[in-house]
Write a structure and sequence with these properties.
504 residues, mainly alpha, three-stranded mixed sheet, 5% strand
Length: 504
């Protein structure tokens, strides 16, 4: 009976979330679609996203959009690669790190968060992230595209090149996978003691309150066509999301995905409390083979995550690809060397963890850094994340079970700040595209760019911290939050799912 009541509470909460989102959308004007009589251009930014710009009918006609089958094919492949990162990549990575008695629980949570994330993205997520939000546009989009209204096989999204586009449905699917993996990453912070029902409530509410607004703040702007006309400079700045308006760069989600999920995991871990026996009994990974297999799938899929964020199959995608090779390689080596020197043995877990930390750090810089800059980011982030996952975690005594904050939160901060440095053309970076100057690469200087990056990081920490606290409090209040000590001792698998991963 208690479980049934908990389920009904979850369903009611989902309904309330949708009603609340609708109320928010009622405060914002509808946005026309590309096929309407008003000239509308669906666009993306050098930080990897799409937005909609409405141009008055009296204005000069926008350049005709063209679609290249090669770009579309690359984006379809990239989308599938990101899905591979989640199921089975992240599921196996996390599953191998927990104890054997909690393997089914971990796999189930990753799976359900992914499924809910896809449905929520279709219902309200895409609209809240990638439409104009009217009076709230600095922070969140509107509801003009709920249920993908107006999105069909004829609508397009502009890429980084003026006049080049991909099908909007391709972009919707690609960004859908980002929303799914971000929520799934949070699970590592509360592993081995959180209720399945709590995760269900979390995965419905957290994207609405935290992820969709963050994606909008970082990736919503006027786009290349609008930016190519200097006369649009003021409108371009005033119509962008808050973090984009700072001039902060985030190619594939250092703030939106990694810092965001890391903070949410830390808040959840603190609110739910430590696992029973934490710091008193050993809790080693039960299957490092699964963890390394998951690491390989994550690394493989991350090519789609980073290089796909370019939205075109060109030299910038190639730059993101090679950076996604060298940064994790450097981080794996620096983590392992530091561990070897300080602890006496280089661990396999350290190699895997270092590689993931490098992937996290290069994510915001993937299309901006040169290969040497990406390697330096990796070499720097390895020891920093090792410190965060060992000494810092021990000093502060919080139980972030699978080190989501230590790797994704801290690694994301290092990468986001570091992007402001490695983008510098003098250091081999690609610079920032100035569309008004015909696509020339510019750079405002280390101090201004690092300040812009730091402002973006600060907003992310505050938004995710406050929003995640609200969501975890609601989820815990409705479902209880964590399993009983008896269930935790026995293992969450059988008590929560009636299944076990292994039969002896």
């Amino acid at each position: 009976m208690t479980k049934t009541k908990g389920l009904w509470r979850s369903l009611r909460l989902a309904a309330l979330a949708l009603v609340g989102a609708a109320a928010l959308g009622a405060m914002t004007p509808d946005v026309a679609f590309a096929q309407d009589t008003t000239a509308v251009v669906e666009t993306t930014t050098p930080d990897t996203t799409a937005t909609t710009v409405t141009v008055e009918e009296t204005a000069a006609p926008a350049p005709e959009l063209t679609v290249d089958k090669g770009d579309t094919a690359w984006m379809l492949v990239s989308t599938v690669l990101v899905l591979l990162m989640i199921i089975p990549g992240l599921a196996l990575f996390y599953g191998g790190l927990v104890r054997a008695k909690n393997m089914v629980s971990m796999l189930s949570q990753v799976f359900v968060v992914t499924a809910i994330g896809m449905v929520m993205w279709l219902l309200v997520g895409y609209s809240l992230a990638f439409t104009d939000g009217g009076g709230l546009n600095r922070f969140v989009g509107g509801l003009s595209k709920v249920f993908l209204t107006g999105v069909d096989t004829n609508t397009l999204v502009e890429t980084f090149s003026v006049g080049v586009a991909i099908p909007e449905l391709t972009f919707v699917a690609f960004q859908m996978t980002f929303a799914c993996i971000t929520a799934a990453l949070v699970l590592g912070g509360v592993a081995e003691r959180v209720k399945f029902s709590t995760i269900v409530v979390f995965s419905i509410l957290w994207p609405v309150i935290v992820y969709y607004p963050m994606a909008h703040m970082v990736w919503w702007w006027g786009g290349p066509i609008m930016a190519s006309d200097p006369a649009n400079a003021e409108a371009l700045a005033s119509g962008a999301g808050l973090i984009w308006s700072f001039g902060a760069l985030d190619f594939a989600g250092g703030t939106v995905v990694h810092i965001n999920s890391g903070v949410a995991a830390l808040i959840g871990a603190l609110l739910l409390g430590s696992r029973t026996g934490y710091r008193k009994e050993p809790m080693p990974p039960h299957n490092l083979t699964f963890t390394v297999l998951g690491t390989g799938l994550l690394w493989f899929g991350w090519i789609g995550f980073n290089a796909g964020s370019n939205l075109e199959s060109n030299s910038y995608a190639a730059l993101a690809l090679i950076n996604t090779f060298v940064a994790p390689a450097g981080a794996a080596l620096s983590w392992t060397l530091t561990e070897w020197v300080t602890k006496g043995k280089p661990s396999l877990l350290g190699l895997a963890s270092g590689a993931v930390a490098g992937l996290v750090a290069v994510t915001p810089a993937a299309g901006f850094a040169g290969p040497v800059g990406a390697l330096i980011l990796g070499l720097v982030v390895g020891p920093i994340c090792l410190f965060a996952c060992s000494a810092l975690k021990s000093w502060l005594k919080y139980d972030d079970s699978l080190d989501v904050f230590g790797i994704h939160g801290i690694g994301g901060i290092v990468g986001a700040i570091g992007t402001g440095i490695v983008v510098n053309p003098a250091f081999g970076g690609a610079g920032i595209v100035d569309y008004a100057a015909g696509g020339a690469a510019v750079y405002p200087g280390i101090v201004p760019q690092v300040i812009a990056q730091a402002k973006g990081v600060l907003v992310t920490l505050v938004w995710s911290g406050v929003g995640s606290l609200i969501v975890w409090v609601i989820a815990r209040g409705l479902t209880g939050g964590r399993v009983s000590k008896e269930v935790e001792a026995e293992g969450v698998d059988y008590a929560e799912h009636g299944e076990v991963a292994y039969h002896n």
